[in-house]
Structures are given as structure tokens and as C-alpha cells.
Amino acid sequence: MLSSPPRLQVWLRTLGLAVLCGLGSLLQAQVITPQANPNFGKVLENATTGTVVLSPLGTPTATGGTTLFGGAVSAMAFTVSGTNGNLFTIQNFPGSLSLSGPGGNVSVDTWVTDLGGGGMSGVFGPAPTTVHAGATLRLPGSPIAGNYTGTVTLLLHNDTANTTSVGAVFTVSVNVGNALTAILINDLDFGSFVVQGAGTVQVRPNNTRSTSANLTAIPQAGFQPGTVLLSGTPGAGFSVTLPVGAVTLTGPGSISMDTFQSSTTPSLALNGAGNSILRVGATVHVSAGQPQGLYTGSFNVTITYN
């Protein structure tokens, strides 16, 4: 009779161990593990607002006044694991994330994943599942150049077991290049000439001038192409849009100006210091008996990053 209680104690401990082991095999803790931070690379911004849409595959697409300029681009990536067959939801993607930087309202929103339909839910498999996520970067017109960053803390919720993981932290980043600016150095000037009949005067971007047979240029009166100093991100390419139609110069009468040209050498790209000189020329059409006097007018030249 004295040996019975010890046998009963040993049996109960063995039973308790067996029950605990059985419960441990039924439920696996859900885990979200960061693999890559989302990086929009380097972008250039003109005077107008723009966006960069980064797909879950890591492919960026620029719209509006934004131009892509290389850099390390990557989508967000992480693995999720949990009890095989349980449903899960990725939580805590921000509706709008403001990025900190030198200045300007730079933000990220509209997150999508490569899960079914771009949503945030799925089913745990027997092995960890890799998930990629992209988002939309929004930039104001002419933001201050520099690095912009922000953080996102994601949670993984096991919908079947109603449990949530410890948060996983990701850093969102983008490098914004210098905005493109233009400063007028010289106006386009055709100089002075004597009219003996209808004709044309052309001033070229290379600082040369020619007149037709019925016009005689006055050498003492200077001429020059329009000159603009461009500043922006070193090495960035840009495009120039000139007037397509004619521009009217007014004075004692009127003179038509057309056939606009701009310099294209050494190249339409900013140099290593982030500068370039753009020169613009055109042609004026003078009528026979054109009234003597000073004629003036204006036209627009648009310069944007490629």
C-alpha cells in the first residue's frame, strides 16, 4: 500500500508531457521576416507634381513631372510563415506615409502585393512564402534635393487562430535630384539692317547671322542668340520645346518670326557641375517698305528633364 502513490505520480507526469507535446504540434507561431526595403531609386522632379509607381516586381514607372534617374531600385520583400493551411493577413500598411528629408511634401501610398489580386491576404504553406510589395511615390513640384526616408512596421495576423506576430520594420527611401532651373542671360537680338525689299534675317544658335539679298546688315549693330543658363542634377539629360508657329514682333509695324532653333552640342545634358548653356536662334521675315524702328516680342522655351 505504501508503493501506490509514487506509481500514480509518475503516471500523471508522463501523461502531462504527452498532452503538451501534442498541443505544440498543432499550432505554429506566425512570423514575418524582412528581406528587402522598398527603394524608389533616384528621381528628378520638374516644376509640376509627379509620381513614381513601384510595382511588386520592382519596376518603377514615372508620371507627371517626374523623371527616373537610376539608382538602386527595389520593391519591399519579406517572408511569412505560420501553421500550414491557416489564413493570414498582412496588416499595418499606412494609408499615406510622409517621408522625412530636406523639405517638400514627399509621400508614399497605395500599397500592393504580389499575393492574389494585389491584396494583403493568403494561406500559410508548409514552407515560408516570399511576398513582394510596391507602392506609389508622390512628389510636389520642385522639391528640395536630397534623401527622403520613412519607416513602415508590418504585422502578420493569423486569421484562423486570431493571433498577431511581432512587428517587422522596413525603411522606405528615395533620392530626389536637383530641380531643373533656367536663368535668361541674353535676349535674342537680330541687330540692325537696311531694308531694300522683302527678305529674311536669321540668327543661329552658334552666334552667326545671315541676311537675304534685299537686306543689308549693319555690322556695327550687334546681334546675339538668346542664351539661357540651365542648372540641375549633374549628368541629367533634358529636352527643349520651342515655338512651332510664328511669333509676331511689334513696333511701327509688325514682323513675323519663326523657324526657331536651339543648340544641341555638346549634348542635351547637364555637365558634371549640373550646368549647361542653351542658345536659341530664329528667323524674321521683313516686308518691302517695312517701317523703320524697333520691333520687340516674346516667346516661350520649355526645358524639362528627359
Anisotropy-based shape? rod-shaped
Oligomeric state of this protein = single chain
- The structural domain count equals 2
CATH topology category name of the largest domain = Immunoglobulin-like
What distance separates the N and C termini? Answer: 96 Å
What characterizes the major β-sheet? Answer: 13 strands, mixed
* Proportion in helices: under 10%
Q: Residue ranges: pLDDT <50 for 5 or more in a row?
A: 1-25
Question: Please, how many helices?
Answer: 1
Q: Mean of the pLDDT scores?
A: 89
In CATH, the architecture of the largest domain is: Sandwich
Determine and state the CATH class of the largest domain.
Mainly Beta
Topology order in helix (H) and strand (E) letters: HEEEEEEEEEEEEEEEEEEEEEEEE
Find the count of extended strands (DSSP E, 2+ residues). Answer: 24
